[in-house]
Amino acid sequence: MSPRRAGALPLLLKLDPEAKQPLNQQIYQGLRSAILDGRLRVGARLPSSRMLAADLSISRNTVLNAYERLAIEGYLRGQSGGGTCVSTELPDDILRTRVPLVTQTPKQSRRKISKRAMRIVDVPFRLRIPELPRGLRAFRIGACALDEFPTAIWGQLVRRQYSRSAISALDYGTAPGYPPLRAAVAAYLQSARGVTCDPEQVFIVNGSQQALDLSSRMLLDPGDTVWLEDPGYVGAYGAFVSAGARVVPIPVDREGIQVAKGVRQAPDARVAFVTPSHQFPLGVTMTLSRRLELLRWAVKSGAWILEDDYDSELRYANRPLPALQGLDAQDSVIYTGTFSKIVFPAVRLGYVVVPQSMVDTFYKVRLFADVHPPIFTQAVMTDFIVEGHFGRHIRRMRTLYRERQEALLDAARRHLDGLLNVLPADGGMHLLAWLPPGIDDREASRRAAADGIEALPLSDFSLLRQHRGALLLGYSSLTPEAIHRGAKRLAASLERLIRG
Among 105, 175, 177, 371, which is most buried by a count of CB atoms within 10 Å? Predict the structure, then answer.
Protein backbone atom coordinates (compact mmCIF):
# COMPACT_ATOMS: atom_id res chain seq x y z
CA MET A 1 0.00 0.00 0.00
CA SER A 2 1.35 3.43 -0.90
CA PRO A 3 -1.04 6.14 0.22
CA ARG A 4 -0.70 9.45 -1.53
CA ARG A 5 -3.83 11.04 -0.19
CA ALA A 6 -4.68 11.84 3.39
CA GLY A 7 -7.90 9.86 3.05
CA ALA A 8 -6.05 6.52 2.68
CA LEU A 9 -3.82 6.68 5.77
CA PRO A 10 -6.52 7.27 8.42
CA LEU A 11 -7.90 3.82 7.63
CA LEU A 12 -4.76 2.43 9.34
CA LEU A 13 -5.29 4.54 12.45
CA LYS A 14 -7.95 3.93 15.06
CA LEU A 15 -7.95 6.94 17.35
CA ASP A 16 -9.94 7.04 20.58
CA PRO A 17 -10.28 10.56 22.02
CA GLU A 18 -11.59 9.05 25.30
CA ALA A 19 -8.53 6.84 25.87
CA LYS A 20 -5.94 7.68 28.57
CA GLN A 21 -3.22 7.50 25.94
CA PRO A 22 -2.57 10.86 24.19
CA LEU A 23 -3.55 11.12 20.52
CA ASN A 24 0.04 11.68 19.36
CA GLN A 25 1.03 8.41 21.10
CA GLN A 26 -1.87 6.60 19.40
CA ILE A 27 -0.77 7.90 15.99
CA TYR A 28 2.84 6.91 16.69
CA GLN A 29 1.93 3.37 17.69
CA GLY A 30 -0.54 2.95 14.82
CA LEU A 31 1.98 4.02 12.18
CA ARG A 32 4.84 2.02 13.72
CA SER A 33 2.68 -1.15 13.75
CA ALA A 34 1.64 -0.57 10.13
CA ILE A 35 5.29 -0.16 9.10
CA LEU A 36 6.49 -3.27 10.96
CA ASP A 37 3.74 -5.60 9.69
CA GLY A 38 4.09 -4.40 6.07
CA ARG A 39 0.83 -2.50 5.67
CA LEU A 40 3.04 0.53 5.05
CA ARG A 41 5.84 -0.65 2.76
CA VAL A 42 9.44 0.55 2.78
CA GLY A 43 9.61 3.78 0.76
CA ALA A 44 5.88 4.48 1.04
CA ARG A 45 5.17 8.20 1.06
CA LEU A 46 3.05 9.63 3.86
CA PRO A 47 0.68 12.57 3.56
CA SER A 48 1.76 15.90 4.94
CA SER A 49 1.10 16.55 8.62
CA ARG A 50 -1.35 19.30 7.65
CA MET A 51 -3.34 16.99 5.35
CA LEU A 52 -3.49 14.11 7.87
CA ALA A 53 -4.48 16.44 10.70
CA ALA A 54 -7.33 17.88 8.63
CA ASP A 55 -8.56 14.42 7.67
CA LEU A 56 -8.48 13.25 11.33
CA SER A 57 -9.93 16.53 12.62
CA ILE A 58 -7.09 16.98 15.13
CA SER A 59 -4.34 19.52 15.73
CA ARG A 60 -1.46 19.55 13.26
CA ASN A 61 1.01 19.64 16.20
CA THR A 62 -0.35 16.28 17.35
CA VAL A 63 0.58 14.73 13.99
CA LEU A 64 3.92 16.54 13.91
CA ASN A 65 4.86 15.11 17.31
CA ALA A 66 4.16 11.56 16.13
CA TYR A 67 6.02 12.08 12.82
CA GLU A 68 9.05 13.58 14.60
CA ARG A 69 9.32 10.70 17.06
CA LEU A 70 9.11 8.13 14.26
CA ALA A 71 11.80 10.02 12.35
CA ILE A 72 14.09 10.23 15.36
CA GLU A 73 13.74 6.48 15.94
CA GLY A 74 14.48 5.72 12.29
CA TYR A 75 11.06 4.64 10.97
CA LEU A 76 10.51 7.71 8.77
CA ARG A 77 12.84 9.87 6.71
CA GLY A 78 12.53 13.05 4.73
CA GLN A 79 12.61 12.96 0.92
CA SER A 80 14.55 15.25 -1.32
CA GLY A 81 12.12 17.82 -2.65
CA GLY A 82 9.95 17.56 0.43
CA GLY A 83 7.63 15.00 1.95
CA THR A 84 8.03 12.09 4.35
CA CYS A 85 8.35 8.39 3.58
CA VAL A 86 9.01 5.07 5.35
CA SER A 87 12.76 4.44 5.88
CA THR A 88 14.49 1.80 3.77
CA GLU A 89 16.34 0.47 6.83
CA LEU A 90 14.10 0.03 9.84
CA PRO A 91 15.61 0.02 13.37
CA ASP A 92 13.91 -3.27 14.26
CA ASP A 93 15.38 -4.97 11.16
CA ILE A 94 18.84 -3.65 12.00
CA LEU A 95 18.62 -5.01 15.53
CA ARG A 96 17.45 -8.43 14.32
CA THR A 97 20.19 -8.58 11.66
CA ARG A 98 23.18 -7.19 13.56
CA VAL A 99 22.51 -8.44 17.09
CA PRO A 100 21.07 -11.94 16.75
CA LEU A 101 19.88 -13.73 19.81
CA VAL A 102 22.59 -16.16 20.96
CA THR A 103 21.82 -19.30 22.90
CA GLN A 104 25.43 -19.99 23.90
CA THR A 105 26.15 -20.98 27.47
CA PRO A 106 28.69 -18.83 29.37
CA LYS A 107 31.40 -21.45 28.64
CA GLN A 108 30.69 -21.28 24.90
CA SER A 109 30.77 -17.49 24.76
CA ARG A 110 33.95 -15.91 23.41
CA ARG A 111 33.47 -12.91 25.68
CA LYS A 112 35.36 -13.42 28.92
CA ILE A 113 35.94 -11.44 32.07
CA SER A 114 39.46 -10.64 33.19
CA LYS A 115 41.64 -12.96 35.25
CA ARG A 116 41.61 -10.24 37.91
CA ALA A 117 37.81 -10.41 38.11
CA MET A 118 37.90 -14.21 38.23
CA ARG A 119 40.27 -14.06 41.18
CA ILE A 120 37.80 -11.84 43.03
CA VAL A 121 34.86 -14.10 42.17
CA ASP A 122 36.75 -17.09 43.52
CA VAL A 123 37.50 -15.51 46.92
CA PRO A 124 36.85 -18.34 49.41
CA PHE A 125 35.49 -16.05 52.12
CA ARG A 126 31.77 -15.39 52.22
CA LEU A 127 31.64 -11.62 52.39
CA ARG A 128 28.07 -10.71 53.27
CA ILE A 129 26.56 -7.44 52.11
CA PRO A 130 22.99 -7.26 53.44
CA GLU A 131 20.35 -5.54 51.35
CA LEU A 132 18.92 -2.27 52.58
CA PRO A 133 17.08 -1.48 54.75
CA ARG A 134 19.24 -3.34 57.22
CA GLY A 135 17.58 -2.51 60.50
CA LEU A 136 18.92 -3.21 63.97
CA ARG A 137 19.34 -6.95 63.98
CA ALA A 138 21.07 -8.93 66.71
CA PHE A 139 24.02 -9.53 66.51
CA ARG A 140 25.29 -7.67 63.42
CA ILE A 141 28.97 -6.72 63.66
CA GLY A 142 30.46 -3.34 62.82
CA ALA A 143 27.15 -1.49 63.13
CA CYS A 144 27.21 1.94 64.79
CA ALA A 145 24.66 3.23 67.26
CA LEU A 146 23.18 5.48 64.58
CA ASP A 147 20.35 6.60 66.86
CA GLU A 148 22.97 8.13 69.16
CA PHE A 149 24.76 10.13 66.48
CA PRO A 150 24.37 13.93 66.91
CA THR A 151 22.37 14.40 63.73
CA ALA A 152 21.19 17.87 64.76
CA ILE A 153 24.77 19.12 65.05
CA TRP A 154 25.74 17.44 61.78
CA GLY A 155 22.74 19.05 60.09
CA GLN A 156 23.75 22.49 61.37
CA LEU A 157 27.26 21.99 59.99
CA VAL A 158 25.85 20.89 56.64
CA ARG A 159 23.62 23.96 56.36
CA ARG A 160 26.38 26.32 57.45
CA GLN A 161 28.91 24.80 55.08
CA TYR A 162 26.44 25.01 52.21
CA SER A 163 25.77 28.70 52.86
CA ARG A 164 29.52 29.35 52.88
CA SER A 165 30.61 27.32 49.89
CA ALA A 166 27.59 26.33 47.83
CA ILE A 167 29.36 27.12 44.53
CA SER A 168 32.95 26.15 45.30
CA ALA A 169 31.86 22.77 46.67
CA LEU A 170 30.51 21.92 43.21
CA ASP A 171 33.91 22.26 41.54
CA TYR A 172 36.75 19.75 41.29
CA GLY A 173 38.91 19.17 44.34
CA THR A 174 42.45 17.90 44.75
CA ALA A 175 43.39 14.22 44.60
CA PRO A 176 44.92 14.07 48.11
CA GLY A 177 41.73 15.49 49.61
CA TYR A 178 40.39 18.69 51.15
CA PRO A 179 43.46 20.43 52.66
CA PRO A 180 41.78 21.54 55.93
CA LEU A 181 40.57 17.98 56.53
CA ARG A 182 44.03 16.56 55.87
CA ALA A 183 45.44 18.99 58.44
CA ALA A 184 42.71 18.11 60.96
CA VAL A 185 43.31 14.37 60.50
CA ALA A 186 47.08 14.80 60.87
CA ALA A 187 46.64 16.75 64.11
CA TYR A 188 44.18 14.19 65.47
CA LEU A 189 46.37 11.20 64.61
CA GLN A 190 49.44 12.80 66.18
CA SER A 191 47.70 13.51 69.48
CA ALA A 192 45.36 10.51 69.76
CA ARG A 193 47.19 7.71 67.95
CA GLY A 194 50.86 8.62 68.19
CA VAL A 195 51.18 8.72 64.40
CA THR A 196 54.14 10.65 63.04
CA CYS A 197 53.03 12.62 59.99
CA ASP A 198 52.59 15.97 58.29
CA PRO A 199 49.33 16.94 56.54
CA GLU A 200 50.89 16.36 53.11
CA GLN A 201 51.35 12.68 54.02
CA VAL A 202 47.60 12.29 54.68
CA PHE A 203 45.34 11.27 51.78
CA ILE A 204 41.56 11.28 52.13
CA VAL A 205 39.86 8.25 50.55
CA ASN A 206 36.39 6.74 50.28
CA GLY A 207 36.61 4.49 53.31
CA SER A 208 39.06 1.83 54.43
CA GLN A 209 38.33 -0.51 51.51
CA GLN A 210 39.54 2.05 49.00
CA ALA A 211 42.57 2.65 51.20
CA LEU A 212 43.43 -1.05 50.87
CA ASP A 213 42.75 -1.10 47.14
CA LEU A 214 44.94 1.94 46.43
CA SER A 215 47.71 0.68 48.70
CA SER A 216 47.66 -2.67 46.89
CA ARG A 217 48.02 -0.92 43.54
CA MET A 218 50.97 1.03 44.84
CA LEU A 219 52.83 -1.79 46.60
CA LEU A 220 52.09 -5.03 44.73
CA ASP A 221 52.84 -6.59 41.38
CA PRO A 222 51.06 -9.74 40.17
CA GLY A 223 52.68 -12.73 41.83
CA ASP A 224 53.97 -10.85 44.88
CA THR A 225 53.37 -12.46 48.26
CA VAL A 226 51.34 -10.92 51.10
CA TRP A 227 51.06 -12.01 54.72
CA LEU A 228 47.46 -11.91 55.91
CA GLU A 229 46.40 -12.40 59.51
CA ASP A 230 44.35 -15.57 59.86
CA PRO A 231 41.57 -15.34 60.76
CA GLY A 232 41.49 -11.91 59.21
CA TYR A 233 39.69 -9.18 57.34
CA VAL A 234 37.90 -10.30 54.17
CA GLY A 235 38.20 -6.90 52.50
CA ALA A 236 41.99 -7.02 52.70
CA TYR A 237 42.06 -10.47 51.15
CA GLY A 238 39.90 -9.24 48.27
CA ALA A 239 42.12 -6.21 47.64
CA PHE A 240 45.29 -8.31 47.54
CA VAL A 241 43.82 -11.03 45.33
CA SER A 242 42.47 -8.33 43.01
CA ALA A 243 46.02 -7.01 42.66
CA GLY A 244 47.20 -10.47 41.62
CA ALA A 245 49.07 -11.18 44.85
CA ARG A 246 49.66 -14.58 46.43
CA VAL A 247 48.08 -14.41 49.87
CA VAL A 248 49.69 -16.49 52.62
CA PRO A 249 47.60 -16.88 55.81
CA ILE A 250 49.66 -16.35 58.96
CA PRO A 251 48.06 -17.49 62.24
CA VAL A 252 47.37 -15.10 65.10
CA ASP A 253 47.97 -15.89 68.76
CA ARG A 254 47.50 -13.85 71.93
CA GLU A 255 50.35 -11.52 70.96
CA GLY A 256 49.21 -10.87 67.40
CA ILE A 257 50.42 -12.14 64.04
CA GLN A 258 53.05 -14.87 64.42
CA VAL A 259 55.98 -13.21 62.66
CA ALA A 260 58.28 -16.22 63.00
CA LYS A 261 55.78 -18.44 61.19
CA GLY A 262 55.44 -15.82 58.48
CA VAL A 263 59.19 -15.79 57.96
CA ARG A 264 59.25 -19.60 57.67
CA GLN A 265 56.27 -19.83 55.31
CA ALA A 266 56.86 -16.81 53.09
CA PRO A 267 60.21 -15.08 53.75
CA ASP A 268 59.95 -13.18 50.45
CA ALA A 269 56.65 -11.46 51.29
CA ARG A 270 56.40 -7.92 49.98
CA VAL A 271 53.57 -6.77 52.29
CA ALA A 272 52.26 -7.77 55.71
CA PHE A 273 48.71 -6.73 56.54
CA VAL A 274 48.00 -6.31 60.25
CA THR A 275 45.38 -4.87 62.62
CA PRO A 276 47.65 -4.43 65.66
CA SER A 277 45.51 -2.23 67.89
CA HIS A 278 42.48 -4.53 67.81
CA GLN A 279 42.92 -7.60 65.64
CA PHE A 280 39.95 -8.42 63.47
CA PRO A 281 38.13 -10.63 64.26
CA LEU A 282 39.82 -12.12 67.34
CA GLY A 283 40.18 -8.80 69.20
CA VAL A 284 43.72 -9.32 70.52
CA THR A 285 46.19 -6.43 70.78
CA MET A 286 49.64 -6.94 69.29
CA THR A 287 52.28 -6.80 72.02
CA LEU A 288 55.21 -4.41 71.90
CA SER A 289 57.71 -7.23 71.43
CA ARG A 290 55.73 -8.62 68.47
CA ARG A 291 55.46 -5.14 66.93
CA LEU A 292 59.20 -4.64 67.13
CA GLU A 293 59.76 -8.11 65.68
CA LEU A 294 57.49 -7.24 62.74
CA LEU A 295 59.26 -3.94 62.14
CA ARG A 296 62.70 -5.61 62.21
CA TRP A 297 61.52 -8.15 59.63
CA ALA A 298 60.18 -5.39 57.36
CA VAL A 299 63.46 -3.47 57.48
CA LYS A 300 65.60 -6.56 56.93
CA SER A 301 63.51 -7.90 54.01
CA GLY A 302 62.62 -4.57 52.42
CA ALA A 303 58.91 -5.29 52.88
CA TRP A 304 55.98 -3.02 53.66
CA ILE A 305 53.61 -3.17 56.61
CA LEU A 306 50.02 -2.15 55.93
CA GLU A 307 48.47 -1.15 59.27
CA ASP A 308 44.67 -1.02 59.43
CA ASP A 309 43.64 0.98 62.53
CA TYR A 310 39.93 0.55 61.87
CA ASP A 311 38.42 1.02 65.37
CA SER A 312 41.28 1.87 67.74
CA GLU A 313 39.31 4.76 69.27
CA LEU A 314 36.89 2.27 70.83
CA ARG A 315 39.07 1.07 73.69
CA TYR A 316 37.35 0.91 77.06
CA ALA A 317 39.84 -0.38 79.62
CA ASN A 318 42.37 2.43 79.25
CA ARG A 319 43.84 4.88 76.76
CA PRO A 320 44.08 3.50 73.19
CA LEU A 321 47.50 2.07 72.41
CA PRO A 322 49.74 4.11 70.06
CA ALA A 323 49.79 3.04 66.45
CA LEU A 324 52.48 0.76 65.07
CA GLN A 325 53.34 3.53 62.63
CA GLY A 326 54.62 5.68 65.49
CA LEU A 327 57.32 3.08 66.26
CA ASP A 328 58.51 2.95 62.66
CA ALA A 329 61.79 4.79 62.09
CA GLN A 330 62.47 3.32 58.63
CA ASP A 331 59.37 4.34 56.65
CA SER A 332 58.10 0.76 56.49
CA VAL A 333 54.47 1.37 57.54
CA ILE A 334 51.52 2.65 55.55
CA TYR A 335 48.75 3.55 57.99
CA THR A 336 45.01 3.48 57.20
CA GLY A 337 41.93 4.45 59.19
CA THR A 338 38.26 5.21 58.71
CA PHE A 339 35.47 7.43 60.04
CA SER A 340 32.82 4.80 59.28
CA LYS A 341 33.02 3.03 62.64
CA ILE A 342 32.85 6.22 64.70
CA VAL A 343 30.70 8.64 62.70
CA PHE A 344 28.41 6.62 60.41
CA PRO A 345 29.06 4.16 57.56
CA ALA A 346 27.44 6.27 54.83
CA VAL A 347 29.95 9.11 55.32
CA ARG A 348 32.40 7.00 53.22
CA LEU A 349 35.54 8.81 54.36
CA GLY A 350 38.82 7.28 55.43
CA TYR A 351 42.49 8.19 55.28
CA VAL A 352 45.89 6.82 54.35
CA VAL A 353 49.17 8.07 55.83
CA VAL A 354 52.12 7.29 53.56
CA PRO A 355 55.85 7.84 54.15
CA GLN A 356 57.20 11.12 52.82
CA SER A 357 59.07 9.29 50.06
CA MET A 358 55.78 7.82 48.74
CA VAL A 359 53.70 11.01 48.62
CA ASP A 360 54.18 11.68 44.90
CA THR A 361 53.56 8.04 43.99
CA PHE A 362 50.37 7.76 46.01
CA TYR A 363 49.20 11.08 44.55
CA LYS A 364 49.24 9.58 41.05
CA VAL A 365 47.61 6.34 42.20
CA ARG A 366 44.85 8.32 43.93
CA LEU A 367 44.37 10.65 40.95
CA PHE A 368 43.70 7.86 38.48
CA ALA A 369 41.31 5.99 40.77
CA ASP A 370 38.41 8.45 41.14
CA VAL A 371 40.10 11.89 41.17
CA HIS A 372 38.95 12.87 44.70
CA PRO A 373 36.27 12.26 47.36
CA PRO A 374 33.25 14.59 47.54
CA ILE A 375 34.44 18.02 48.68
CA PHE A 376 31.30 18.99 50.56
CA THR A 377 31.33 15.96 52.87
CA GLN A 378 35.01 16.53 53.58
CA ALA A 379 34.33 20.15 54.52
CA VAL A 380 31.55 19.16 56.93
CA MET A 381 33.76 16.48 58.48
CA THR A 382 36.49 19.09 58.97
CA ASP A 383 34.14 21.29 60.99
CA PHE A 384 32.94 18.26 62.96
CA ILE A 385 36.53 17.55 64.01
CA VAL A 386 38.00 20.99 64.61
CA GLU A 387 35.00 22.23 66.60
CA GLY A 388 35.31 19.34 69.06
CA HIS A 389 32.19 17.37 68.11
CA PHE A 390 34.22 14.37 66.93
CA GLY A 391 36.14 14.07 70.20
CA ARG A 392 32.99 14.39 72.29
CA HIS A 393 31.22 11.78 70.17
CA ILE A 394 34.10 9.33 70.61
CA ARG A 395 33.95 9.73 74.38
CA ARG A 396 30.19 9.16 74.40
CA MET A 397 30.48 6.07 72.23
CA ARG A 398 33.20 4.58 74.41
CA THR A 399 30.89 4.84 77.43
CA LEU A 400 27.83 3.59 75.53
CA TYR A 401 29.58 0.66 73.85
CA ARG A 402 31.23 -0.42 77.10
CA GLU A 403 27.77 -0.53 78.70
CA ARG A 404 26.41 -2.53 75.77
CA GLN A 405 29.31 -4.98 75.93
CA GLU A 406 28.55 -5.50 79.61
CA ALA A 407 24.91 -6.07 78.70
CA LEU A 408 25.94 -8.75 76.21
CA LEU A 409 28.17 -10.46 78.78
CA ASP A 410 25.30 -10.40 81.27
CA ALA A 411 22.88 -11.79 78.67
CA ALA A 412 25.38 -14.55 77.84
CA ARG A 413 25.62 -15.54 81.50
CA ARG A 414 21.86 -15.65 81.85
CA HIS A 415 20.81 -17.24 78.57
CA LEU A 416 23.81 -18.81 76.83
CA ASP A 417 25.63 -20.57 79.64
CA GLY A 418 26.82 -23.97 78.42
CA LEU A 419 26.05 -23.03 74.81
CA LEU A 420 28.60 -20.29 74.16
CA ASN A 421 31.70 -19.09 75.95
CA VAL A 422 31.54 -15.33 75.37
CA LEU A 423 34.84 -13.60 76.10
CA PRO A 424 35.09 -9.96 77.26
CA ALA A 425 37.29 -7.55 75.29
CA ASP A 426 39.11 -4.30 76.01
CA GLY A 427 37.37 -2.55 73.13
CA GLY A 428 35.70 -2.87 69.76
CA MET A 429 32.13 -3.47 68.60
CA HIS A 430 31.78 -7.27 68.86
CA LEU A 431 32.72 -10.19 71.08
CA LEU A 432 33.98 -13.62 70.17
CA ALA A 433 31.78 -16.48 71.42
CA TRP A 434 33.29 -19.99 71.35
CA LEU A 435 31.03 -22.94 70.62
CA PRO A 436 31.43 -26.31 72.36
CA PRO A 437 34.06 -28.53 70.70
CA GLY A 438 32.82 -30.37 67.64
CA ILE A 439 30.04 -27.90 66.75
CA ASP A 440 30.26 -26.48 63.22
CA ASP A 441 30.10 -22.68 63.48
CA ARG A 442 28.76 -22.30 59.94
CA GLU A 443 25.87 -24.62 60.70
CA ALA A 444 25.25 -22.75 63.96
CA SER A 445 25.21 -19.47 62.02
CA ARG A 446 22.75 -20.87 59.47
CA ARG A 447 20.42 -22.10 62.22
CA ALA A 448 20.58 -18.72 63.96
CA ALA A 449 19.84 -16.87 60.70
CA ALA A 450 16.73 -19.00 60.23
CA ASP A 451 15.61 -17.73 63.64
CA GLY A 452 16.28 -14.10 62.74
CA ILE A 453 19.69 -13.79 64.41
CA GLU A 454 22.84 -12.68 62.60
CA ALA A 455 25.86 -14.38 64.19
CA LEU A 456 28.70 -14.72 61.71
CA PRO A 457 30.92 -17.80 62.00
CA LEU A 458 34.63 -17.39 62.65
CA SER A 459 35.28 -19.85 59.81
CA ASP A 460 34.03 -17.25 57.33
CA PHE A 461 37.14 -15.19 58.09
CA SER A 462 39.66 -18.02 57.99
CA LEU A 463 41.76 -19.61 55.27
CA LEU A 464 43.34 -22.00 57.73
CA ARG A 465 41.20 -24.67 59.37
CA GLN A 466 39.90 -23.57 62.74
CA HIS A 467 40.17 -26.21 65.45
CA ARG A 468 37.13 -24.87 67.25
CA GLY A 469 34.10 -23.00 66.00
CA ALA A 470 33.05 -19.56 67.21
CA LEU A 471 30.46 -16.89 66.47
CA LEU A 472 30.96 -13.12 66.24
CA LEU A 473 28.36 -11.22 68.26
CA GLY A 474 28.04 -7.50 67.60
CA TYR A 475 26.51 -5.30 70.28
CA SER A 476 27.25 -1.65 69.44
CA SER A 477 23.96 -0.92 67.64
CA LEU A 478 21.72 -2.72 70.15
CA THR A 479 20.04 -1.55 73.33
CA PRO A 480 20.42 -3.79 76.41
CA GLU A 481 16.82 -4.92 75.96
CA ALA A 482 17.47 -5.92 72.34
CA ILE A 483 20.64 -7.72 73.38
CA HIS A 484 18.76 -9.84 75.92
CA ARG A 485 15.98 -10.63 73.44
CA GLY A 486 18.55 -11.65 70.87
CA ALA A 487 20.43 -13.81 73.35
CA LYS A 488 17.25 -15.72 74.20
CA ARG A 489 16.51 -16.41 70.53
CA LEU A 490 20.10 -17.44 69.89
CA ALA A 491 20.01 -19.75 72.90
CA ALA A 492 16.89 -21.50 71.59
CA SER A 493 18.54 -21.99 68.21
CA LEU A 494 21.76 -23.38 69.70
CA GLU A 495 19.83 -25.64 72.08
CA ARG A 496 18.20 -27.37 69.14
CA LEU A 497 21.57 -27.75 67.38
CA ILE A 498 23.76 -28.81 70.29
CA ARG A 499 21.39 -30.82 72.42
CA GLY A 500 19.15 -32.11 69.68
Answer: 177
